[in-house]
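All the exercises in this workshop are built on plain-text protein records. A learned vocabulary of local backbone shapes supplies the integers on the structure line. Once this layout is familiar, the rest of the handout is easier to follow. An example says more than a description, so a record of this kind follows:
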Amino acid sequence: MSDVMSQIQNIGIVPVVKLNNVEKAIPLCEALIAGGINVAEVTFRTECASDVIKTIARECKDMIVGAGTIINVDQAKLAIECGAKFIVSPGFSRDIVEYCQSQNIPVIPGCITPSEIMQAIECGLNVVKFFPAKEFGGLSTMKSLSGPFGQIKFMPTGGVNLENLKEFISAKFIVACGGTYMVKDDLINSDNYEEITRLSRQSIEIIKEARE
């Protein structure tokens, strides 16, 4: 496991961030870090996503910034050029995986079927995204998949919240969880950074308790 992936595992939660305003990037990162979370996945679902990543990489050295919702090699290339330290894709693309590997950048592709997981293993990966987790059976499905694929760890995203975070993170086949509950649009749009910090701190406390 790479150093970046080890750090993500140690943190246990990856905020999945969607920003429409570059100016909110640094205050948001500061709020997350204040709550004990120094990693963020910036989704490529807005026009300013690459600028957000570039800004965070340049001005917030304590934050491990990655790029999410990467669906082609061109996006992966742009994200890495902007400073992304890891790449997350909603599905499996061998082209994306092999490009990231050629750049020595950790990549976490979305895999929800045995066939997709086997492709990930063939590429030498041991961590995959499970998305959308809730709709595809959550912990029950991942537990079943971990039987034949014991070398694989999952990063479930979609439906993770404070109520079920402990249950997810307690499972030995979960490396970390992706979540949006601490970075919801209404919190960011209203500059409610205190609440973002509170939710982040509560998440870290839950993770620490689960791992004791």
Q: What stands out?
A: The chain has ten helices and eight strands. The mean pLDDT is 97. The domain at 3-193 is CATH 3.20.20.70 (TIM Barrel).
